Amino acid sequence: MYYYVFEQPENKKAEKIQEKLKANLEDLRIIGEATKANPVQKPEELVISGITKGYNTIVIVGSDDLINRMATYVVGRDVTLGMIPTDPGSKLLKLIGAKHPDHACEILPFRRIIRIDVGRVEDDKYFLTKIDLVPAVEKGAGPKGVDLDSASSVIDFGQFKAQTRASRITIENGNLDINYPEKIKKSFTDGKLDILTAPAIEKKEGFLSKFFKKETRPAPYTSMFHSENFRISASPLMAIISGDKIIGRTPVEFSIIKGALKIIVSRTKE
Amino acid sequence: MAMFEGSKEGGDVSKETIIGADVTITGNMKSAANIQINGNVKGKVDTQSDILIGETATIDGSIRAKNIIVTGNVKGNIEVSEDLEIAPTGKIFGDVITKNLIIKKGSVFVGKTTMPETETPTTDTEKDKEEFKGDLIDKLEDAEDENKDKNKEKISEK
Question: Do B40 and B25 contact (CB within 8 A), yes or no?
């Protein structure tokens, strides 16, 4: 039996989409117990409740960020994760081999299960897709002349260290930016995390910049490493962000847990 | 040079290591996939695949790879199993062991080169010649033996 956790809808449009998906699941006769996150009950509490009740399949219906965070509560238990990503342009649809959320519903009854790697942050937090690290100090704080949009960071891989002034570091479990299903699956089962770093943003201030405030674009990634485990330290501190939530700060250790999560994917996903 | 074949569509680009110009590496790097270096490296670099050393790269240590293209600065020994190319902006201060060496105009190379000898392959024509020669020698020897035997018989008859 399936236990569904629906994300709290942000607006009426999102609520209508959820109703439509629920009706679709009922038509497919795979509706089990459906719960919806709300200000009183957070999604993680609902997931834990489903596991406690003995459900062996938890299906998260919501954004990629929500699904990414909920993986934490399923890892290490004999539970299969199903997902119905509802973000327009969701990248997780590629992971499960679905073209759109309705297709993701149709995948569930066939229960084609694969094991994928999961990223671990320190000892107790996990992620399915990616984690970002950004400088944690607020702008305006600190002495003049100090660049607070970047942090002097050191990534320790054991046999070597990489040092850089980074405006952003992203840790990815797999690559969802490519369009080859087999390569996507391979990137989530290769036993390595990918580390991407972006340098400090160059700020060129001219005469007119005093009058017009411009949003600085994020710098593109210039480095890429691959490792099973590594440690990141930074000065000033960097915040560890999953989706839009801060889950910790540097120094932090990352590692990969191979084959730690069972997910339901499309039968045609090869 | 069959360099960075993984970069072509269908190749395993995802496992390539890229060191940006803003990064400094200290220690020994080991990889199975291609490595692109645009930053600073103080230590050894070892891969079973190819290395591209960018114009902004400086490496202080030894390097080992299948193929290497140098467009930056290297201070250390280099060991390559296939091709080593030093581009016009490339500089190497160290000894090199390589199967094939390409030095472009404008590059700098200060050091010794060792190019391991390989067996010269023989063509079919040459092989045929050798075989014919061998056959001829055998025939001459046989004829000589025959003559010797005949002489012995003649002597014994007398």
Answer: yes
Number of Cβ within a 10 Å radius of residue A76: 12
Q: How far apart are CA A196 and CA A194, in angstroms?
A: 7
Instruction: Determine the Cα–Cα distance for residues A226 and A244; give it in Å rounded to an integer.
Output: 25
The predicted model scores a pTM of: 0.80
Contacts of B26 in chain A (CB under 8 A): 160-161, 163
**ipTM, 2 decimals?**
0.83
Catalogue the E-assigned strands of chain A: 2-6, 33-36, 57-62, 80-85, 112-121, 125-127, 130-135, 151-156, 160-172, 193-199, 223-227, 229-235, 238-242, 245-249, 252-265
CA distance A122 to A126: 9
Size of interface A-B (CB pairs under 8 A): 60
| Contacts (Cβ under 8 Å, ≥6 apart) of B65 | B35, B45, B46, B47, B48, B49, B50, B51, B79, B80, B81
CB contact under 8 A, B24 and A164: yes
Chain B residues whose beta carbon lies within 8 Å of the beta carbon of residue A164:
20, 22-24, 39
Q: Which residue has the tokens 């002034």?
A: A165
What residues contact residue B88 under an 8 Å CB cut-off, 6+ apart? B71, B104, B105, B106, B107
B17 to A161: CB separation less than 8 angstroms, yes or no: no
Distances B6 to A74, A137, B51, B153 between C-alpha atoms, Å: 36, 40, 12, 76
**pLDDT tens across A174-215, in order?**
888 877 777 788 889 899 999 999 998 766 555 555 555 555
Residue whose token pair is 């496992």: B15
pLDDT tens profile B14-57: 589 999 999 999 999 999 999 999 999 999 999 999 999 999 99
Query: For residue A59, with 0-12 CB atoms within 10 Å meaning exposed, 13-18 middle and 19 or more buried, which class applies?
Result: buried
